[in-house]
Amino acid sequence: MGMPIFDCFDTSYKHPFGAIRRGQPSMFNIRLPKSYQVSGLTLVMFRPGYKERFIQLDLQDESGDDNIFSAVFTPNNLGIHHYYFTGVIDGRRRYIKRTGAHLGVFEGEELFQLTVFDENMYTPAFIRGGIMYQIFPDRFYKSGKKHENVPSDRILRDDWSGTPYYRPDEKGVVRNNDFFGGDLQGIIEKLPYIKSLGVTIIYLNPIFESHENHRYSTANYEKIDPLLGTEEDFKELCQKANEMGIEIILDGVFSHTGADSVYFNKFGRYGDNTGAYRDRNSPYYPWYSFTGYPDKYESWWGITTLPNVNENNEAYTNYICGDDGILQKWIKLGAKGWRLDVADELPDEFLDNVNKAVKRLGNDKIVYGEVWEDASNKESYGIRRRYLIGGQLDSVMNYPFKEAILNYVKYANAQAFTDSITTILEHYPKPAVDMLMNFISTHDTERALTRLGGEDVGWHDKDWQCERYLSPAESTYGISLMRCAMVLQFFLPGIPCIYYGDEVGMEGYRDPFNRRCFPWGNENLELLNFVKVLARIRRGTHAFDQGALRFIEVDDKVCVFARFDRITRDGAIICLNKSTQTHTFNLKDEKTDMFFDLKLAHCRYPDDANDPEKGIVRVSPFDFAVFYCKV
């Protein structure tokens, strides 16, 4: 098989790889057989809604078996650009477009994408090479501290290992009002444990006053939920975490509030004549959209306990994004930044204002967004979003990587895995890539161990999900796969985000069973120690800070890839064996000739068959080895 006509993943065809900064030249090369009669070969580049640009490709190199035609494009505008190639070949107009993830072919059906981002966008130094830990506060650790002003209508659980309530009440409503009592002081007490995992950032699910245990139904953005503690507890958490080299980011839920809130006050908790639901003259009334006052109003996905807000209402925007508004209040009290819930439901203007408010307190303050798809070309409500080109999100939750990792580990489709990973790396700006939130579980998905080792949840209802655990055989197999998934999570570009309890083998299908309490005293210590090894290796080289990725060998049994930084010259080669047989890796070939000075950083194989200087290493089933190296 000959060389492809064009390959957007290959820097010999498109250089530099991936997204580019505004004003940065990009070289495009097309390879065509010498037997073709070619004229008018053109790169067609355009942004949706704008006029096309036609750039001639000139014959650049005819010394080899094919003729190579080249053109340079220098973008002046931010945003997504699409492109293809066209020309008259052997007397007929032909088009070169994309097929699959990256190859250019005649009569391909898809356009290629080029992301152009702000030239001043960068990754804050503190987060590079970091490790994140996600905590669902009610379920992590209960300090036992007595808390004041806790509403009397909450169900306070004293069975820490119990299953969260999930059935509707007699009115058919799921109340989410059972609380296990995890609190901020509990997190403070467990900071040494969190630090032992190599964690540098803690991401907290919502901590503000709310009358549901998930706290995504905000009752008061200005107050810590009384069952979690106080503002002083939050300040203490940030201070003590910072002393350990750990920063805190908060969950911002700004597309809706709770109906049971000081702002809406549907149930009268906050007085008889306050809140938008009870008083048309309330200062909060313009925040909401009523279609039939007071009982008909817009709500999040039709859930009436979550009334939508008009984010671009001037008073609301100022309340959240103004000087000393909600965003700045909690950063000034110690937070390093925010993760924005349902970012695709927040309008662009509001996201612009969020970014400005956060960055006014320093460019090292960060904004993540919850986006489940490819965030570079996401469309919502008929609008192409501009999350990652500068001025909005610094980076996103990396759901595409999660799906790619879990599907590869469980089902072994190597091509789909490498295509999925490389597509995100090609589409996203490098500063966003270097701080991608790489998880394999979250509070919104099944636990990775359950997904890897157990039966697919499919359409099974919550009664089926609630007390379903892995059998001993499923657990053993699932943990073997989990180890492989965590190797990819820790060493691919971005930063690993551990969902609390994944590191000790927590199970669980969907919400709320993925939100059980941390099993203190019943941890899988072998898996925990494995995660600590991953963290140690990650911290041992700068290759994982901002290093590029190169896949070396990937099939259904093994995955070998390298991370490398040409500026620091640091590199690492990861050899993952996801098969049931011991595998010997030999890294001394043309695929790895750019790497030298190999030093074996990790391998658990017990015999003396390894020869690190020659790049030969044996790896046990469902295990890995890592070489540090130079480039």
Task: Explain this structure.
It is a single chain. The protein has 631 residues and is α/β, with parallel strands linked by helices. The protein has 14 helices and 35 strands. Strands 1, 3, 5, 6, 9, 10, 11 and 12 form an 8-stranded mixed β-sheet that branches. Helix 7 packs antiparallel against helix 8, helix 7 crosses helix 12 and helix 12 runs parallel beside helix 13. The longest helix is centred in the C-terminal third of the chain and has 20 residues.
How would you summarize what this structure contains?
The protein has 631 residues and is an alpha/beta fold. It contains 14 helices and 35 strands. Helices cover 21% and strands 26% of the residues.
**SS-based class:** alpha/beta
Number of discrete domains: 4
The total count of helices amounts to: 14
Name of the CATH first level of the largest domain: Alpha Beta
Please state the overall shape, judged from the principal axes of the Cα atoms: globular
CATH superfamily of the largest domain: Glycosidases
Looking at the overall shape, the CATH architecture of the largest domain is Alpha-Beta Barrel
